[in-house]
TrEMBL record:
It holds the Pfam family DUF229. Keywords: Membrane, Transmembrane, Transmembrane helix. This is Uncharacterized protein. The chain crosses the membrane at residues 21-36. One of its GO terms (cellular component) is extracellular space. InterPro entries: Alkaline_phosphatase_core_sf, DUF229. The keyword Flavoprotein does not apply.
């Protein structure tokens, strides 16, 4: 046998062995998937049928509220476009002071890790003075030593960036996200009518009305959008920088991140990148109770009363400050590739009623982007993470149904529509399909990785967990296929059941036992919870399935004591067992009831369950 013939026989044997191994692997994976799917309830495997319920007038009234105002006054200092700190002569004179009696200092604010800031020494300024650091705290005294002004100021400084930033092009688009916490599609239509009318009707943005949250709060939903991962996957990940953000950096984008709330960031839960322009330091500094934002009137010699409402910092709404800071990112990096993330919490998180305060400002910001040409090569998203979770609206059945249907609307530049009509067709098809944050992540990847041409030409393939919105998402998609847990699946109908039913009491006690076990497992100083009363009970079912009385899904709203917590649980009860679907949700605010829970456990959800014993 010659050498070539021997090699052919060896290669043939190797190929056959690999084919056999590959076949075995396919069979094993197939069996595993079959067993997993077999144990998944039939309801979640069914094609999605969105529950259609119209709100009544009583529900709409719950979204009405008294407008909140920040105490408006002109600041005594400002930073101009060139980065120079000045005194505001007009405002000082209007307050009956003179420049000559003013003595002002400032301190720079710098990030110190993820959850703290550090301060530079006080610097006396004689205007004008160039401020290198983006965020400062200004303090002004008059001759007799009285503090007449203290406030935060910012100026986005391109000099802090050390990377090469490339120009926008027609095939390498900028990405801008305007986010509002806790805003369902329905709430947005009621409270942001001007914004949605201009964005969707005038600019032609595409509403994604079947967009569904995959988790209870912000973290799992935004983590899926920005990293494509669940919380456990992020914990186990060995990457120091998420794939999408790494691509943002390597492709020459400038990155600007502005949020009006500074929750504790747990390093091992998510690998938060160190953004180039990061507004977090101001929000962290503002939480320091020793710092005050104030201005003194020389007429009364009293500090002007400021709103204590968390939607304000001193004399301005937080969402307007976020827009102003982000606007500087566009102005300082004109025609450059930009990745801009704006997230507004305070104006919507606790009270959906107050969201209307941001309507005109959001509309004007988008109008400004359009009129200045900043949308020419930019994909703009207006979105949320989930609907309202607390308050009277969230406690209604309509609030429950819409809670897992957050706002999402996407603007695509005109030249992209003309060049890639097929992906626009898919966006329109997907408007009312079941979609998730995992799908949005794949969409952002297509934009950042410049995959639009590929999406234009490809046929629909087997769907992974996330499917780009530039590909058609099939009409028969189920919550199981979309990786939506049962407790967040929007594809159920429901009917009320008697509160006196023994099974209702049984499943409620089961949910409370689950709460107490969570508290016990974490060894924290929280009270043992007991049932106070059941507020409501409904049975969940899939409309297209026959009603099975041997297996019921109960959605229960109940009060516990101590603390008068109002909770919601979805519990599965069949002839053999009882099980909880997802987690137990809190429907009323808990304030300082859980102040004994340390920051390092904030991500566990314990705070919404705990009533501190001390």
């Amino acid at each position: 046998m010659n050498r070539n013939r021997f090699r052919q026989l060896v290669n043939c044997c190797v190929r056959r062995r690999f084919k056999r191994i590959y076949t075995y692997l396919i069979l094993i994976v197939g069996c595993c998937l079959y067993l997993l799917k077999k144990n998944v309830p039939a309801n979640v495997l069914m094609p999605c049928e969105f529950e259609a319920v119209a709100p009544d007038k009583s529900v709409l009234k719950l979204l009405q509220g008294q407008p909140v105002k920040c105490r408006m006054w002109q600041p005594f200092a400002y930073i101009n476009q060139s980065g120079y700190l000045h005194l505001n002569t007009t405002a000082i004179n209007d307050a009956n002071f003179t420049i000559s009696e003013f003595k002002c200092d400032y301190r720079s604010i710098l990030m110190d890790g993820l959850n703290a800031v550090k301060w530079s020494p006080r610097v006396k300024f004689i205007e004008p003075v160039f401020v290198y650091n983006e965020f400062i705290y200004v303090i002004c005294n008059i001759t007799n030593g009285t503090t007449v002004y203290s406030n935060f100021h910012f100026n986005l400084n391109p000099k802090v960036n050390k990377r090469k930033i490339l120009n926008e092009t027609t095939d390498q688009l900028s990405v801008v996200i305007i986010g509002f916490d806790s805003v369902s599609r329905f709430v947005a239509e009621q409270k942001l009518p001007k914004t949605l009318d201009f964005f969707e009707n005038s600019l032609g943005a595409y509403p994604i009305k079947g967009y569904t949250s995959i988790g209870d709060n912000t973290l799992p939903n935004l983590l899926a959008v920005l990293t494509g991962k669940t919380i456990p996957e992020s914990i186990l990940s060995t990457r120091t920088i998420p794939v999408l953000f790494q691509e943002v950096l390597s492709r020459g984008y400038i990155d600007c991140y502005a949020e009006d709330w500074a929750p504790y960031l747990v390093p091992f839960v998510a690998k938060y990148p160190n953004y180039t322009h990061y507004f977090r330091s101001v929000i962290l500094a503002n939480e320091n109770k020793d710092l005050h934002v104030s201005q003194l009137s020389s007429v009364t010699m009293k500090h002007k009363k400021l709103s204590t409402n968390p939607i304000c910092i001193g004399n301005e709404f937080k969402h307007k400050i976020i827009f102003e800071y982000s606007k500087q990112c566009f102005e300082k990096y004109k025609k450059k590739r930009k990745y801009v993330f704006m997230w507004n919490n305070q104006v919507s998180h606790h009270n959906p009623q107050s969201l209307s305060l941001a309507d005109e400002d959001t509309k004007q910001f988008i109008e400004w982007m359009n009129s200045t040409g900043n949308l020419k090569n930019t994909v703009l998203l207006v979105m949320s993470d989930h609907g309202p979770r607390y308050g009277k609206f969230a406690q209604t059945d309509f609030g429950r149904i819409t809670r897992n249907n957050p706002l999402l609307s996407i603007y695509i530049p005109h030249h992209v529509k003309e060049t890639f009509p097929n992906i626009i067709k898919k966006l329109k098809v997907n408007e009312n399909r079941l979609t998730t944050p995992f799908d949005l992540y794949e969409t952002l990847k297509d934009i950042i990785f410049s995959n639009l041409e590929k999406r234009e030409k490809e046929n629909n393939l087997f769907n992974s967990r996330g499917t780009s919105l530039f590909r058609e998402i099939h009409k028969q998609r189920s919550c199981y296929e979309a990786s939506i847990g049962e407790s967040y699946c929007p594809c159920y109908a429901s009917q009320p059941t008697s509160l006196a039913d023994d099974t209702v009491q049984l499943v409620t006690i089961f949910a409370i036992d689950w709460l107490n076990q969570i508290i016990t497992d974490h060894n924290v100083s929280c009270a043992h919870l007991k049932l106070k009363s059941v507020k409501s009970a409904r049975i969940h079912f899939t409309p297209s399935l026959n009603y099975d009385r041997n297996e019921n899904r109960y959605i229960i709203n109940f009060y516990t004591y101590p603390g008068n917590g109002l909770f919601q649980a979805i519990v599965l009860k069949d002839v053999e067992k009882i099980s909880l679907l997802g987690n137990v949700d809190r429907l009323n605010e808990y304030g300082n009831q859980s102040s004994c829970i340390p920051e390092k456990l904030a991500h566990t959800g314990l705070r919404k369950y705990c009533y501190c014993q001390s």
